[in-house]
Amino acid sequence: QMQLVESGGGLVQAGGSLRVSCAASGRTFSSYNMAWFRQAPGKEREFVASITWIGRSTSYADSVKGRFTISRDNAKNTVTLQMDNMKPEDTGVYLCAASLVLTTRASQIDYWGQGTQVTVAS
After folding, report:
1. What is the rounded distance in angstroms from the CA atom of residue 42 to the CA atom of residue 45?
2. Rounded distance, CA 6 to CA 22, Å?
3. 100: helix, strand or coil
4. Less Cβ crowding at N or C end of the chain, within 10 Å?
5. What is the DSSP track for 4-71?
6. pLDDT tens-digit map of 67-101
């Protein structure tokens, strides 16, 4: 089992920045690809960003490309999502995810965190 605990959510004005982090424990963190998904009320969970197990490759949803940056620190077992120039449509619960397969599909995720609420006010 792997435990994932998110932190850093909150309320931000449109155009502002926020950083969310995820701390992992239990399994070998460096063996897993990591990702962030988000879920808005009444909507399906959607892929936001991912980073490979060694951190050499990243991928982003088109809606956040150029504004969000994912990074990881395998020595500290953490993954971070820096969100800049935020928009009201970025509002949702942000969930940390771990998978052995590099994927953008929620169905292929092995472990999920509980999520942290991010709200962007217009």
Report:
1. 10
2. 4
3. coil
4. N
5. EEEE--EEEETT--EEEEEEEESS-GGGSEEEEEEE-TTS--EEEEEE-TTSS-EEE-TTTTTTEEEE
6. 999 999 999 999 999 999 999 999 999 999 999 99
* Cα R_g (the chain), whole angstroms: 13
- pLDDT tens sequence across 32-46: 999 999 999 899 999
* Residue tagged 């950083």 (tokens): 19
Could you give the C-alpha distances from 44 to 35, 90, 93, 110, in angstroms and in order?
16, 14, 11, 18
Instruction: Tell whether the model's pLDDT for residue 55 goes beyond 90.
Output: no
Work out whether strand 116-121 and strand 10-13 pair parallel, antiparallel, or are unpaired: parallel
CB 61 within 8 A of CB 47: yes
CA distance 23 to 5: 5
